[in-house]
Amino acid sequence: MDLVDLIREKRFLGQEFLTWLWFVSERGAGRVPIEGHGTVEIHFEERMVLETGLDLYRQTVTCQGRNLDLTEARAALREGKKVSQARLRVASADKEWRLTLSADGLDMTGVRLIGHRDPFEQGPEEQAGRLLDRLGLLKELTDLMDRLFAIFLAKRLDPDWPGQELAAIRRWLREA
Amino acid sequence: MGLLQGAVRLTRYRLAEAIETPDDQDLAERLRTHAFVSIENAPQESSSGWVEILNPFTSRFEPHHFRLGDMVTLALRTDSRRLAPAVLKRYLTLAEADLRASTDKGLSRDQRAELKDRVRLELLTRTPVATSVSEAVWFTQEGEVWLAGTGTKERERFEDLWRRTFGVGLVWQIPFLLASRCLPQGAGPEDLSGLKPAALYGQGRD
Known about the structure:
The complex is a heterodimer of chains A (about 180) and B (about 210). With about 180 residues, chain A is an alpha+beta fold. Helix content of chain A is about 45%, strand content about 30%. Chain A has helices at about 5-25, 70-80, 125-155, 165-175; strands at about 30-35, 40-50, 60-65, 80-90, 95-100, 110-115. In chain A, strands 1, 2, 3, 4, 5 and 6 form a 6-stranded antiparallel beta sheet that branches. The longest helix of chain A is centred in the C-terminal third of the chain and has 34 residues, at about 125-155. The model of chain A has no long low-confidence stretch (mean pLDDT about 85). Chain B is built from 7 helices and 7 strands. In chain B, β5 (about 130-140) and β6 (about 145) form a beta hairpin. β6 (about 110-115) of chain A pairs antiparallel with β1 of chain B.
């Protein structure tokens, strides 16, 4: 199967990951434990896109706003739509990031490294240092997202998925 | 905007196959071979090539310019000119009128095509050039590559130039491929490929 077909056929994995991430974030009031790492904070905020169908039949709902309570997003989930893009705030120890995560390729856009100040000096050494710092922070973020994805995948492939995590997601949606 | 400052857009790749990382001199040669070539004084629509990440106007590629520990840093620079169709049409109409005035006969199809090419080239050299730079990092130990960009054309240009430069393709790390690298204990590739979408709400497939 080539990459284009693979993206089409398996895009639900990214959508389900984002939906699961939203669920675990709400379940833990924004705190998600990662074994061997500690707790990471995940907050869904400002903007979420949900969709159903493919290509010409694709329908999307965009929920946006500063104090978004995501009620409409939950309603869209209940109608069978899945999260395809979400704006997140992620915090771990003293680091914090804001980013938009897309389900298709887990692309990150609008990634902001909160609290990281660019040095005023613009010499080559300062620039190289800044690049190194920023790459380190981005690497930490991608490692965190990979760990979260691995946790999701372990649950998704677990034979108990329907009776446990999926049942809990459905309960969360019903009660929300 | 990008890896150096501001908000970042990120596409993650892995090398299509494991390769031995070229040494710094070899890397430098490869990068110089595919370095950016300016179209400032040439009647070309676009040009893409590697530049140094900290200075997108140079392509010297001394190892200390691209090597950061286990990382290789570089940037894809694309210069392009956009000639608006309406502008081309205007100048072509004027040039055809001039040519007709100097000959009794009408213009042949070949003459018209030749004139269009000439007018286009003349206009291109007078059209300002726009520059875009997409930074990239190769984590050589992990075989992972980042492009600070998510546009479709940007990705295609990057993937193509990467393949021509290093002789190995890049595979975009979509969720399925990321999943195949972090399968939990006891799960096999067949479990992953057999996975179907779950009905997250209501009845349906689990």
